[in-house]
Amino acid sequence: MAVTIKEIAEYANVSRGTVDRALHGRGGIRPEVEKRIRAIADSMGYKPNSAAKALSNLKKKLNIGLLLPSIHNPFFADLILGAQEAQRALADHGVELLLVEMRGYDIEEQVRRIDWLVSQKIDMLVLTPFDDSRIAEKINELTKQGIEVLTVNSDICNSDRVCYVGIDFERSGHIAAGLLGLINHRANVLIVNGSPKLMSHGQRVRGFMDTIQSRFPEVRLVATVVCNDDNFAAYDLLRQKLQDHPDIDMVYIVGEGITGVCAAISEFTLHQIDVICFDDVPHTKELFEEGKISATICQQPYQQGYLVVQQCYNRFIGSASRENAVIELENQIKIRESFY
Amino acid sequence: MAVTIKEIAEYANVSRGTVDRALHGRGGIRPEVEKRIRAIADSMGYKPNSAAKALSNLKKKLNIGLLLPSIHNPFFADLILGAQEAQRALADHGVELLLVEMRGYDIEEQVRRIDWLVSQKIDMLVLTPFDDSRIAEKINELTKQGIEVLTVNSDICNSDRVCYVGIDFERSGHIAAGLLGLINHRANVLIVNGSPKLMSHGQRVRGFMDTIQSRFPEVRLVATVVCNDDNFAAYDLLRQKLQDHPDIDMVYIVGEGITGVCAAISEFTLHQIDVICFDDVPHTKELFEEGKISATICQQPYQQGYLVVQQCYNRFIGSASRENAVIELENQIKIRESFY
DNA sequence: TTGAAAGCGTTACCAC
DNA sequence: GTGGTAACGCTTTCAA
Question: What is the pTM of this model?
Answer without folding.
Answer: 0.92
